[in-house]
Specification:
about 35% helix; single chain; alpha/beta; 8 helices; TIM Barrel; globular; 9-stranded parallel β-sheet; about 220 residues
Length: about 220
């Protein structure tokens, strides 16, 4: 039997300098926190430090690994430098499951200073079997103080069912799941309604296929909650 859970936190994704201007025009009720995609933002911009500091919302620092959809083919050393630079002004960091051991010192520093950690996995080709996703969650440490986030391509309703089951099997933990591709938009509403801790929406252009504009996502979730 499906269990209904808490309303998710809505995340507004900032992936361009233009998004900073657009986010200021959004009603704050549309989202709870924002994700800064530093792999997509121009690092040489003189405006970026002040734009980041002035955001009046909790902030997720993300420097996505190119293997999992990160932009600009950033090597590990560059990604680590970005995290170290922006950690003091952000409230969360998003680290891929594959990089937990490599970035262990960064994670330790983040958690010791009161930051939260999102452990993530992304598959742009398919949705792995439920057993595989559960194994990944177990590998992440099943830590109640962290959020385990999964984003996979959902080509069929059966893929959505896998993500639903992952959430339902781990309701005592903070699990976020979302789909990309053909069933992406539908999956994000269903999964948010059934227990995903986070629901991501775009400020400007969608960062991944199947992502709702954040204001529309907020309105739809309000309707179905």
């Amino acid at each position: 039997m499906l269990t209904r859970a808490r309303k998710p936190s809505i995340v507004a994704v900032i992936a361009s300098l233009e998004d900073f201007g657009d986010i200021s025009s959004k009603q704050s009720r549309s989202f709870d926190l924002c994700e800064l995609r530093f792999d997509k933002l121009p690092p040489s911009s003189d405006k970026l430090p002040s734009l980041v500091r002035e955001l009046p919302f909790p902030k997720i620092a993300t420097v996505r690994d190119p293997i999992e959809g990160g932009a600009n083919s950033m090597p590990e050393s560059a990604r680590l430098s970005f995290f170290e630079r922006w950690l003091p002004v952000c409230d969360f960091i998003d680290i891929e499951l594959r990089n937990l051991s490599r970035f262990s010192k960064l994670i330790q520093e983040a958690e010791s200073t009161g930051k939260e950690v999102i452990v993530s996995f992304h598959d742009f080709a398919k949705t792995p079997a439920l057993e595989k996703l559960q194994e990944m969650f177990d590998q992440s440490g099943r830590d109640p103080n962290r959020i385990f986030k999964v984003g996979t391509t959902v080509s069929h309703w059966s893929d959505v069912e896998v993500l639903i089951q992952l959430i339902q099997n781990n309701l005592e933990f903070r699990v976020a799941a979302m789909g990309m591709g053909a069933f992406g938009k539908l999956s994000r509403l269903v999964l948010a309604r059934l227990g995903s801790w986070l629901a991501y929406g775009s400020i400007g252009a969608a960062v991944v296929p199947g992502q709702w504009p954040v204001t529309q996502l907020s309105d739809l979730l309000s309707e179905i909650w």
